[in-house]
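Q: My labmate handed me this sequence with no annotations at all. I'd like to see what the chain might look like in three dimensions before we decide whether it's worth expressing. Could you predict it?
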Amino acid sequence: NWEESDLMEMDYVDGFVENEITEYHYSINTFQEYTHFNLVFPNEDMRLRISGNYILIVYTDGNKENVVLTKRFMVVEPKVNVLPIVKRATLLDDRNYKQEIDFTIMHEGYMISDPYGEIYVVITQNNRWDNAVRGLQPLFIRSDELIYDYDGDNVFTAGNEFRNFSTRSFRYRSERVAANIVDSTYNHVHLIPDDRRSFLKYSTHSDINGRFFIKNEEGNDAEVDADYAYVYFTLPYDAPMINGDIYLLGELNNWVLNKSSKMEYNYEKKIYEKKLMLKQGYYEYQYVYKEDGQAAGNETLIEGSHYDTENEYTIYVYDSSLRNNYDRLIAVKKFGTRY
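A: Here is what I predict for the chain of 339 residues:
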């Protein structure tokens, strides 16, 4: 979980718990001026002592209320091995649009007294946490093996390959760009309106599973010479959703479904629309529908779902036994559907 633990700072940090960011560079030849900060972590002043989930908080002016950003990350101490199998869903009703994740935890040499109470497992798809599968318990236990071989509790909607666009250059319109416009203040990139794909046949193409990378084709150092632009997303829709909202989802918004990623409905144009300021580069994204009161987004309504979609999965294994007094991360296994 991501709740604050009862540990003392000295229990998990070796050195200082705060570290001033002193390395920075000003942008070069960009229309939108900015300052680029760098921090190497861990460093000589701040190191972590134990495994688990962490949140890095960056704030300004020495005031912890002035939060600039937060970043979640994990530290793992490999103690057990995870052997995954990803396949087409077993249940007949799920076979055409879901993927099943079976796996075995091999813990030879690592003592687990109570597998049902001590071991906590989380499975994520493409770095999403809104639809993570949590808390599965082993179906079978033998010798030094914990076997998780479910049919229904360990499945994910397979979704579709990610949409993409490129702003690596403002001098020409890339494949998904309708117009590049510069006014007196900002760069503006208008994307070609997107269509629903829920009733289209599956078409495979290579993607990077919702990630992005920063790049300026006319520059030498994207950290300081890549410019920023407002990017405009539009999704035609005859009427707004009644019991939920449409969101943009991908690494471009840190995989969160909140106000910053929610699409707004334009009644005059009959479209969902969103404007984000993004640095030059290549980006991937999807549209997901989140019903009111639900935590997980559903991509099938807009994107469709096909069992043969290429996805990336991660299995996190925690030891939550009382002897640790914290959730010890003892294995992380990343794999894809081509695994």
